[in-house]
Amino acid sequence: MNHPAQLAALKKPLPESLLAALKSLFGERCSTSEAMRQHHGRDESSYDPMLPDAVVFAQSTEEVSDAVKLCAAHDVPVIPYGAGTSLEGHILALRGGVSIDLSQMNSIIAVHPEDLTVTVQPGVTRKQLNTEIRDTGLFFPIDPGADASLGGMAATRASGTNAVRYGTMRENTLALTVVMADGRVIRTGTRARKSSAGYDLTRVFVGSEGTLGIITEVTVRLYPQPEAVSAAVCSFPTPGDAVRAVIQTIQMGVPIARVEFLDEQGVKAINAYDKLTLPEQPLLLFEFHGTEHGVQEQAETVQEIVAEHNATGFEWATRPEDRSRLWGARHNAYFALLQLRPGARAISTDCCVPISRLAECILDTKADCEHHDMVYSIIGHVGDGNFHVQMLVDPNDPADIAKAEGVNARMVTRALAMDGTCTGEHGVGMHKMDFLVQEHGDGAIEAMRALKHAFDPRNILNPGKIVQW
Amino acid sequence: MNHPAQLAALKKPLPESLLAALKSLFGERCSTSEAMRQHHGRDESSYDPMLPDAVVFAQSTEEVSDAVKLCAAHDVPVIPYGAGTSLEGHILALRGGVSIDLSQMNSIIAVHPEDLTVTVQPGVTRKQLNTEIRDTGLFFPIDPGADASLGGMAATRASGTNAVRYGTMRENTLALTVVMADGRVIRTGTRARKSSAGYDLTRVFVGSEGTLGIITEVTVRLYPQPEAVSAAVCSFPTPGDAVRAVIQTIQMGVPIARVEFLDEQGVKAINAYDKLTLPEQPLLLFEFHGTEHGVQEQAETVQEIVAEHNATGFEWATRPEDRSRLWGARHNAYFALLQLRPGARAISTDCCVPISRLAECILDTKADCEHHDMVYSIIGHVGDGNFHVQMLVDPNDPADIAKAEGVNARMVTRALAMDGTCTGEHGVGMHKMDFLVQEHGDGAIEAMRALKHAFDPRNILNPGKIVQW
Q: Where would I find the FAD-binding PCMH-type domain in this sequence (chains A, B) (predicted)?
């Protein structure tokens, strides 16, 4: 892991001339207030904030380019800021510098319903996008829980509950506009659904967490709203039963749109938070998209599968309000869990394994949590083999934090031994840099570093994240 | 375009010491015979061969690494060779050097049916793969027509008829083993279905055409064989009717597995070649995958849509032998077409546009072909907005070739003006380098060049392809 104190030692004061230039360019949209810097120096991880020296609110690609050019001329770090919902310390200003807030770049640039594509500015959030395109009959499926910005989602290679059916930002991003480290503006693709035209720059930037360039436009795929949607919920005597039911569902190729696992503690938390009365046992929450008959057929197949795995209380939720209540509760799980230990902070882990190893990985991780008396819950996008352990820790107790980090480290090691990955969807940020090396090995890390050096030769783009310089 | 004569001037004779070292390493699997060099100095493009100085047949990642290390030490180009089915001059040895033939690396390393993944050596062909995994109940969908090798398909970001449903090599490659320009071996991913773990090296190499590294293992996703498959064929009075029917099918979100367009000339060619009696009019060939009922439902929806677009002769092919006959004919279209003008060579074009512009792009291109009296056919994976014009030219008539290149250039310009791409699936090779610049602009090309320089600082990996050094 990075050592924040060590890195902060590299921090230089912001040159007066740069600040003057930024103020002249951005006027009141350039701030150095403590409150503003605090707000931009943290994400939803458990890290203490590390503040940028200044924050500018960009309103166009040109402004981002101008800000980057100024910072480049002064060798000052720039850190793009979307909605601040990242979880691994992605946007902390390790070496100070300028946070470029993109939230005011929140226009939908062009919807092409006939092509199932939309181009947006990076500050557009996923909920905003779906609200604005609702009457086209299309929707954008990727749903990481938080109301993240599309620019941030692309930068983190986000996914979430729908990925099992619709893929992640990796599969759904068609093109990006990117401001490079020297302020040049490039476009990485077209609106064609597929292309073999040279190196895949779009996917070089998707998941690059602001370290290779700053994303200022995002073109993504949209999907027709399904003719029919239904949800189902059922409970299991053990987490192993639940996960094995999912494995079989995936192996049979049932095209489920979502399948979420919550362990007993997760169910307890959302029951309390959302005033629900779900049985306090491991639970699966399914969603089916398709034609009326197709949805019914999928649900029947799944009902047979879960029955073989000792499911009880299989219940339908075909009415939109019932579905919204269940999925709303699922999305609140993080906040619901925080209520279980007042004053605590959550450390959220993230790993993804080949589906056949999922039950084993979850059960071993659960045993480790129990062994260390953690207050925790396991939830997961289990159709992809992806799950999270949320652990509640006392932020003022280093021993408590160390215990949680131990669980996390062992979980990652376990996932890697199963040919899985140290992060399914949260990204690397500061927190997973050592795990990244463990996963990829020195050779591949060297290739990543070569890429970073080629695209950002002066290391000003969100420095200290993903790979060590 | 590159000027082969100019590039060939850079060619140096192969150092004797290198040849001796390769012979000592590969024994009889190192050849400098004229016939062997001829075979490895051409692909299925209309380019004249440009020969490597030597060919080695590698049998392991270590051997590839050893060969690359030797060539690197002598600053000699290395060109990976799979099945030789590329179409844009990908494997021509512009500056001579060593062709590393990977066809003997044709083992399936590990099938994980329970995870729907398989890891293969790069010389495994797609047909071989499907034959070897047949009894797992799974299949590998990507089907570029030719029986290409998996390594070559990854290197070219191949796709084909099934991409509309299952995606391309971009979406289906989970991990690669790659020999880098200095002989180091890296692995770019894991078998997890999704990951946010750092820069997406897998997709850096997918589509890099041997210019950034040599792929020596490929892990791809597999899919359960569908419970039911059916095909349908119908004819249209005009190509515009056919394409508009496809556009509507896609916009409605019908999950078709394949939809192929053949123009009148294409149908004539396959009728003659495959002894079929299809009406000699523009034609669509559909395939549906799903449950018994789902397939029927899709086909009924499609039947309604095509009827609105003046389709005639809608016919089912539910029996496997009838489906095979139709799809076999489609796959033979390239060879069938060659029979239309004996002694001719085919120039195959490739572009992809947003689906709403597809009819216009095809019709304008068709008009251009007619205007220039080309012997041609248009076929396409129209569900993706991707199509090909195959033009038959006299290889000894420069004027004829120039005429075809003119049609191609105008088609690409047209596609780019529609926010499409200069190549949907064939790749860049030598032939599309200028079009690549036209598509991406100098800034993005500069980023691609930075990537090439970072990964291959001495320009020994398949030099002269994708981007100018």
A: 48-225
